[in-house]
Amino acid sequence: MRKVVLITGASSGIGLALCKRLLAEDDELHLCLACRNRNKAEAVRASLLASHPTAEVTIVQVDMSNLQSVFRASKELKQRFQRLDCIYLNAGIMPNPQLNIKALFFGLFSRKVIHMFSTAEGLLTQGDKITADGLQEVFETNVFGHFILIRELEPLLCHSDSPSQLIWTSSRNARKSNFSLEDFQHSKGKEPYSSSKYATDLLSVALNRNFNQQGLYSNVVCPGTALTNLTYGILPPFIWTLLMPAILLLRFFANAFTLTPYNGTEALVWLFHQKPESLNPLIKYLSATTGFGRNYIMTQKMDLDEDTAEKFYQKLLELEKHIRVTIQKTDNQAGHSGSCL
Q1: Each residue of 231-242: pLDDT tens digit?
Q2: Name one GO cellular component term (predicted).
């Protein structure tokens, strides 16, 4: 029986490279591409099947920043599949990133220059906006949309006889200082991306605490600094090209510069082949690349505690309850208005 793997954000960047690597290792997989843009997803599907004709590749259209879309996609998936072996929770956004030139300049002459380039700590701020669901867009896309997807797909994921995996694309940029339980959507801050990735780390820990006994396991990964649409939003491609000689030199000292999406998927692919019950839920798995271009895996203990993770999880459950009540009221009002016509 084919293993079924669902990948959000599969049409470009890390998600696309992940699809190619997984099929290169096992073309008997069933990959389900969860993408916002159906036309791009169809093109990716055709390309994957051309390279791996024995594989099974399907598509589900979903916009993680729209909960109605997430509910629709979840319903469709439950109609198609009896179980999911793995979900890569990879889709994410970093809208309108702004580089802090002053912080970059001073960082170049500090003792933390390698750390600064490895994590982008203090270098990036982003704009954010409110979605149609009334939530902060970065939080909803990177965290809450995926949380609702998992909640909806629990019947396909929870099988104690054969464990399923959740693998989150997190970041070295996940900073405890940018996250607050009182403002977990980061509506008052300027680094929503970092906050959302720290929230991802917390959620992964809480999911293990609540679902391991039901056969569901969760882990987080950082793909490193790979040149994707996300990084091209920070600096245009020609600037990255100009910086490449310096970056390649820096890679001898900072292993976070994976540079290509293929290299960035190293830890994501490695995790897929591990027994999920044997992995440490408090560890982040990092894709790394040496100065000579060799890929390998690093581990990093996450800077968090399980009590905070559980409190955050409970806040998400409360928000989910509120959202469902709101949707139900909206549906009822639409029904009543329709009956009066």
Answers
A1: 777 777 887 788
A2: endoplasmic reticulum membrane
* Sequence-ordered list of residues with C-beta below 8 angstroms from that of 323, at least 6 positions apart, any chain: 67, 133, 148
How many whole angstroms separate alpha carbon 252 and alpha carbon 250? 5
Q: How far apart are CA 320 and CA 322, in angstroms?
A: 5
CATH number of 186's domain: 3.40.50.720
Per-residue confidence (pLDDT) for residue 115, from 0 to 100 = 63
Strand ranges inside the chain, DSSP E: 4-8, 30-35, 56-61, 86-89, 98-99, 124-125, 164-169, 216-222, 283-289, 295-301
| pLDDT value of residue 240 | 78
Q: Which residues of the chain have pLDDT under 50?
A: 339-341
* Whole-angstrom distance, CA of residue 210 vs CA of residue 220: 16
Report helix, strand or coil for 259: strand
Q: According to the model, what pLDDT value does residue 238 have?
A: 81
Q: For the chain, what is the domain count?
A: 1
Active site residues: 193
pLDDT for res 113: 64
- pTM value? 0.91
How many whole angstroms from its chain centre is CA 336?
39
What's the token pair of residue 253? 């000292």
Please check whether residue 205 is in contact with residue 304, taking contact to mean a CB–CB distance below 8 angstroms: yes
Q: Show the domain range for 268.
A: 4-338
